[in-house]
């Protein structure tokens, strides 16, 4: 029984893993980049490169909000909604925005935003149209060019298989450990096995946590049944119960001027003397039913929903708020969510998240390469490789080499596209997917060591070109970032240089790889044999 | 009149015989089919089991409504994963199918009785 349990788990691990590994690689890749979402957006937006971080950020917030209300009262008096987004440690600029009238066919009205330098209160240069880090953030769970809900179901399915692969992997690992000492395999796939084990075991708590909590972030789509059964009006009833909302003045009709914002801020600071306000939102300004929502940063607490106070704009009275103390269930749910998003992470923890994500990519990548290598080793030289093997090898090359190259293309497109290009943000994304498609097409033709080498070399050049093109097209470069202590931008460029070096090393490694390597297609290795004396 | 049951019996037997022969003749197909059935019960059965058990649990737990829901959804993936592993842990495919179908329908029935859906 025990033996068959191990065997069934080994089987499960292999096939469940193989089925979804390429999609998982994409999810891990985009998810890892999403931990640097704000930094990527910063890099993509040269207009904010020279905005210095404020020295007295929290102290300046009160005045910024008061100024914002004056600005919005002048510019967006007839708008349905106002939004003041304050600078955060990783987002250095200030936004005053008001909703434009909804155009027919739009689900939500678009915002007219004014971005300001918080130090000088001067308007920043016009922003270029780019999705920045949000592209990778959405790609992580919404994929692209498809319906978001369908994509989320697919992503959840893959994540669940990932969880199963992790659990079964833990079960079989003991045996693999024994196997490694009891008999020696051919070095080729053994090395990959070691890589796979190392990257899995080192970051195992991270892998388990990130996979489980990832599904929890979409849990009300996956399992709406508890809420549907418990509440009479289903999901709506549940969400109304857990989100603070205005039930006191929302039925009020007619216009009514708002109380001075000062009176509302006084209440906020009485409640939270050291409040780090992130956003102030006004719905239906100057109406009797108007609400002013003040959101503060959750800081380092394990809370994903930002603590907030909601006031009636007409009376200045507080009408709703988030719970000060969370019940155990809420704390469990909120902590699971906040562990996944890592919004609480400061620099050290953020880097640990990223390293965990990279370990995840290595784990998935080495797993799918190992499968192909093993089958290759078992296939005799005179036997034609099966369609399945060729497919796996092609997908391996297309995913592992294609994604970094596509990412480079995304950033290069960001710098090379003219700021006036129509639908510029979409074209950056198009560059990403076209590059990936090109790599996939090349992988269709050949998947041997030479092809991997060519891809590694192209990646090395592409990674190198990102900081170079940045230096040529913007005012800053990696040296000036270092001199002016612009750490986010410096790290961004430095990472690309680092990856460029790593890809060069890979190119060299693949050149010196043994010529009898099993990745060479049989026809080629036959040729090699014939050439040998 | 007498010929009817006699005729029916062999036809029935022959269908079973043919089916079993088909499976014996093509062990690959039979293996693939059993793998498919196992994945089917693990994915769909596991999902239904989790949906039923979390719904029932959130209804039964002596907590406030929102707490019960949040606790149950937080546990749901754990339950689903356990059922999934169970479906591959038990050797007999028949046992897996019967146990998951029975427990799921029992929970749905209990929930239906409690909610007064019947």
UniProtKB/TrEMBL annotation, chain A:
Keyword Transmembrane: yes
InterPro entries recorded: PepSY-ass_TM
Family annotation (Pfam families): PepSY_TM
Coiled-coil intervals, chain numbering: none
Keywords: Membrane, Transmembrane, Transmembrane helix
Residue spans crossing the bilayer: 12-36, 151-177, 198-223, 351-373, 394-417, 429-445, 452-472, 487-505
Protein name, as recorded: Membrane protein
The organism of origin for this protein: Pseudoalteromonas fuliginea
UniProtKB/TrEMBL annotation, chain B:
Name recorded for this polypeptide: Iron transporter
Transmembrane region(s): 35-61, 68-90, 96-114
Keyword field: Membrane, Transmembrane, Transmembrane helix
Superkingdom in the source lineage: Bacteria
């Amino acid at each position: 029984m025990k033996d068959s349990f191990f065997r069934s788990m080994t089987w499960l691990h292999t096939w469940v893993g193989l089925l979804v590994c390429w999609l998982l690689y994409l999810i891990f890749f985009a998810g890892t980049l999403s931990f640097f979402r704000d930094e990527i957006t910063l890099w993509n937006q040269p207009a904010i490169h020279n905005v210095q971080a404020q020295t007295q950020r929290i102290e300046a917030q009160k005045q910024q909000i008061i100024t914002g209300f004056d600005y919005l009262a002048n510019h967006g008096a007839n708008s349905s909604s106002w939004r003041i987004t304050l600078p955060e440690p990783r987002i250095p600029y200030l936004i005053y925005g008001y909703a434009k009238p909804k155009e027919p066919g739009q689900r939500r009205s678009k915002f007219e935003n004014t971005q300001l330098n918080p130090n000088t209160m001067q308007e920043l240069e016009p922003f270029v149209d780019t999705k920045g880090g949000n592209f990778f953030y959405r790609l992580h769970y919404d994929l692209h060019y498809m319906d978001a809900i369908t994509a989320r179901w697919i992503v959840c399915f893959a994540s669940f298989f990932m969880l199963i692969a992790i659990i079964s992997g833990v079960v079989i690992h003991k045996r693999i450990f024994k196997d490694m000492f009891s008999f020696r395999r051919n070095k080729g796939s053994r090395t990959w096995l070691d890589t796979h084990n190392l990257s899995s075991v080192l970051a195992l708590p991270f892998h388990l946590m990130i996979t489980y909590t990832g599904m929890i972030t979409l849990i009300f789509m996956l399992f709406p049944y508890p809420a549907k059964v418990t509440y009479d009006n289903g999901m709506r009833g549940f969400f109304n119960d857990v989100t603070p909302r205005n039930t006191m003045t929302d039925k009020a009709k007619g216009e009514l001027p708002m109380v001075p914002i000062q009176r509302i801020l006084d209440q906020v600071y009485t409640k939270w003397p050291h409040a780090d306000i992130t956003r102030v939102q006004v719905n239906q300004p100057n109406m009797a039913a108007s609400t002013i929502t003040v959101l503060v940063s959750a800081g380092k607490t394990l809370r994903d929903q930002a603590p907030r106070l909601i006031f009636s704009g007409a009376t200045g009275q507080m009408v709703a708020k988030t719970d000060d103390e969370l019940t155990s269930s809420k704390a469990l749910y909120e902590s699971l969510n906040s562990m996944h998003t890592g919004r609480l992470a400061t620099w050290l923890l953020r880097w640990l998240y990223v390293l965990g994500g990279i370990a995840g990519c290595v784990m998935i990548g080495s797993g799918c390469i190992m499968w192909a290598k093993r089958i290759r080793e078992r296939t005799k030289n005179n036997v034609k490789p099966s369609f399945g093997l060729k497919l796996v090898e092609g997908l391996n090359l297309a995913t592992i080499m294609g994604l970094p190259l596509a990412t480079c293309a995304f950033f290069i497109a960001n710098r090379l596209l003219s700021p006036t290009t129509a639908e510029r943000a979409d074209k950056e994304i198009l560059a990403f997917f076209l590059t990936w498609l090109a790599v996939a097409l090349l992988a269709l033709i050949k998947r041997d060591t030479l092809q991997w080498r060519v891809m590694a070399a192209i990646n090395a050049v592409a990674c190198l070109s990102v900081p170079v093109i940045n230096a040529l097209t913007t005012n800053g470069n990696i040296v000036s970032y270092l001199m002016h202590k612009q750490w986010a931008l410096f790290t961004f460029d430095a990472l690309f240089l680092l990856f460029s070096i790593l890809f060069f090393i890979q190119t060299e490694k693949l050149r010196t790889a043994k010529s009898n390597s099993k990745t060479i297609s049989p026809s080629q290795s036959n040729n090699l044999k014939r050439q040998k004396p | 009149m007498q010929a009817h049951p006699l005729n029916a019996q062999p036809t029935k037997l022959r269908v079973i015989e043919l089916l079993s022969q088909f499976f014996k003749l093509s062990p690959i197909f039979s293996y693939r089919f059993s793998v498919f059935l196992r994945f089917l019960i693990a994915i769909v059965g596991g999902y239904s089991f989790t949906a039923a058990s979390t719904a029932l649990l959130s209804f039964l737990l002596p907590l406030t409504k929102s707490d019960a829901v949040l606790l149950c959804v937080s546990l749901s993936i754990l339950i689903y994963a356990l059922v999934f592993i169970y479906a591959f842990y038990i050797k007999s495919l028949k046992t897996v199918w019967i146990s998951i179908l029975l427990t799921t329908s029992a929970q749905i029935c209990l929930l239906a009785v409690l909610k007064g859906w019947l």
